[in-house]
Amino acid sequence: MPVTPPPHARIRLEPTVERARRAPDRGASRALEDLRYIRETMANASAFTALSGWGLVVIGVTAVGTAILAASQHSSRSWLAVWLAEAATAVAIGSVTTGWKARALQLPLVSGPVRKFALGFLPPMVVGSLLTVAMNNPLMIGLLPGVWLLLYGTAVVTGGAFSVRIVPVMGLCFLAAGTVALFAPATWGNWLLAGAFGGLHIAFGLAIAGRHGG
User: Fold this and answer.
1) CA 197, CA 24: separation in Å to the nearest integer?
2) Domain limits of the chain?
3) Is the pLDDT of residue 24 over 60?
């Protein structure tokens, strides 16, 4: 014959049954929260945020000074040497300031976002270096400002696809400046470099520093 549990046993069993009924709902809610957290983490990890806005500002200032110095040169080779020295200086400034910001953000320099940015940024820069060597002659050196700006803009757009939204926008501005420089009179080239490498770096650097932590 069936055994009826005593009243005090039923009292103890009823909360247990109710908790068991609620457990699947709590488990599903927790799983959705975990999934949302994973998605947010992956989205944040995919963006390269260590580009230093203040570093870009410093690069812009040095570019303006370089343009002034380059304008006083009496030969195309000395003009080129001045701008190549500026390129080396800009690389050093960008590398150091990005390293500082990456450490401040606790972002490893070998992380996925950094590698993605580098893979997008470096190939156009290598092409620019090769074209600079190939075009180092009096007949073609006047085209270098346009070539530099176009390839640098390409590098910033492709690398910036893995960074914050304002970075590829900056790249598009460099592409526009490069298009003008490529078809403008050669005498404009030096000052178009000043306006782009100087002015655009300063303007966008200040925006990045203000919106994205330095």
Assistant:
1) 59
2) 1-45, 53-211
3) no
